[in-house]
TrEMBL record:
InterPro entries: Osmotin/thaumatin-like_sf (IPR037176), Thaumatin (IPR001938), Thaumatin_CS (IPR017949). Disulfide bonds join C33-C238, C81-C91, C96-C103, C152-C228, C157-C209, C165-C173, C176-C185, C186-C196. The keyword Magnesium does not apply. Transmembrane segments: none annotated. Keywords: Disulfide bond, Signal. Pfam families: Thaumatin (PF00314). PROSITE patterns: THAUMATIN_1, THAUMATIN_2. This is Thaumatin-like protein. Coiled coil: none annotated. Residues 1-24 form the signal peptide.
């Protein structure tokens, strides 16, 4: 019949109008190290894998991936990776003990610098933190870009702590393996805030990287928890810049009606607030 628009076209128009108003978040991974970094991730809370293909970032290179809605999990960098005599993929630091370039459900092996994210739907804040409580293997900087509310501050650690880490036997930058006593691991009888104390590494790290999460019962008085709404993110390994600065959009106040809730990201083994 003349003048009648097919139903399929109406549905398509509605879909296009709806999609145009949806903001798809992205994550850029950038390598400013002098060596290749193999990016790794583990999802939490039943969210889908962030990426399944191996991401080997050559020096000076970067890649951008899409972020699933409401994604939660950890991201870190692995260094000096190779295949051993029996064909297992292993890394000197950050190895996930999966035997392959993909970590799947395997967890990170300390020492490792980690970024944790709890991404949220529109109307809620994303929360993110850089952690050194399982040790330090790479400088890391997380920068939100284009956020519309929240702190929207860069965070991480780019100070030279590698000299401190490498000045003593292997493990110094892993607070559990580098120092004796389960109180530094905050395990067993040392899980309570009054018994879980910072290690010498944590105390040193606090002076170098005050914006990072430093040990399992970090008291939260330091500014290591950050939030931002509707933002893209950039993670830089071995960044040639400073931390604690405003993002490119500047620090802005959260919009009215933004909701928060407390969550626990089990795969990363420490609490954040979102």
């Amino acid at each position: 019949m003349a003048g009648v628009v097919p139903l399929s076209l109406l549905v398509l128009n509605v879909f296009l109008c709806f999609s145009a108003g949806v903001h798809s978040k992205t994550l850029e991974l950038s390598n400013e190290c002098g060596h290749t970094v193999w990016a790794a991730t583990v999802s939490a809370g039943g969210t889908p894998p962030l990426f399944t293909d191996a991401l080997a970032l050559l020096p000076g290179k970067s890649t951008t991936i899409s972020l699933p809605a409401s994604w939660s999990g950890c991201i870190w960098g692995r260094t000096f990776c190779t295949y051993d005599a029996i064909g297992r993929f292993t890394c000197a630091t950050g190895d996930c003990d999966s035997g392959s370039q993909e970590c799947a459900c395997a967890s990170e092996q300390p020492p490792v610098t980690m970024a944790e994210f709890k991404l949220s739907d529109p109307g809620y804040l994303d929360f993110y933190v850089v952690s050194a409580w399982r040790g330090y293997n790479l400088g890391m900087l997380v920068v939100p870009h284009g956020g519309s509310g929240g702190d929207c501050m860069a965070t991480g650690c780019v100070k030279d702590v590698e000299g401190f880490c490498n000045s003593e036997p292997s493990g110094r930058c892993n607070p559990c393996f580098g120092y004796s006593g389960t109180n530094y691991c905050c395990s067993g009888a040392y899980t309570r805030p009054d018994t879980c104390k910072p290690s010498p590494f944590s105390q040193y790290f606090k002076s170098k990287c005050p914006w990072a999460y430093r040990y399992a019962n970090d008291d939260g008085k330091s500014t290591w928890k950050f939030d931002c709404a509707s933002s893209d993110y950039i993670i830089t390994f071995c960044p040639h810049t400073s931390t604690g600065q405003e993002s490119s959009t500047g620090a802005v106040s959260g919009p009215s009606g933004v909701k928060t809730k407390k969550v626990w990201i089990k795969s990363c083994q420490y609490p954040t607030y979102s």
